[in-house]
Amino acid sequence: MRVADPHVVAVHRSASHSFSKFAEDAIRLVPGLGVEGDAHAGATVRHRSRAARDPTQPNLRQVHLLHAELFDELMAADHPVWPGDLGENVTTRGIDLLALPAGARLHLGPSAIVEVTGLRNPCVLLDRFQPGLMAATLARDAQGRLVRKAGVMAIVIAGGEVKPGEGIRVEVPAQPHAPLEPV
What we know:
Organism: Ramlibacter lithotrophicus
Strand content: 25-35%
Number of domains: 1
Number of strands: 13
Shape: globular
Protein name: MOSC domain-containing protein
GO molecular function, one term: molybdenum ion binding
CATH superfamily: PK beta-barrel domain-like
Pfam families: MOSC (PF03473)
Strand order of the largest sheet: 2-1-6-5-11-8-7-13
CATH architecture: Beta Barrel
Helix content: 10-25%
Structural class: alpha+beta
InterPro entries: MoCF_Sase_C, MOSC_domain, Pyrv_Knase-like_insert_dom_sf
């Protein structure tokens, strides 16, 4: 596998609502629910603050994907963080996750498919994990708009096992494309 090929770097889950997630040899994605055994799995919202407001909302955050290129950037800026530290389920390499349109589908390994629903909105928990980390995951584009770099959220369309080293294929929806917004 060439380094430029889009692939899964690492997979993680946690049965508790801990900030970081634990590395696994494989995770199983369950359609309409998320990562089997993960605290955020469910058809309705599992994020604690969102569930407190309205526990009947659909769970658009079943799977958190984060690009390994962000870890490279953070390490270069003296923020020692590794896959799983920021709470993602799937760490990728070779895909510009933040540039994907809403509704893009990622085929992970031989059978799993997730549909991108939006951006992860960085929060103050990043600074509690490591001072200055929240600011390091935010930027401004050439027009001065806020860029959230903490990955994307997705729902599970087709289930299956996902392992590090497996390829990723991107399926972009038909035009017009909707840009990703925080979910």
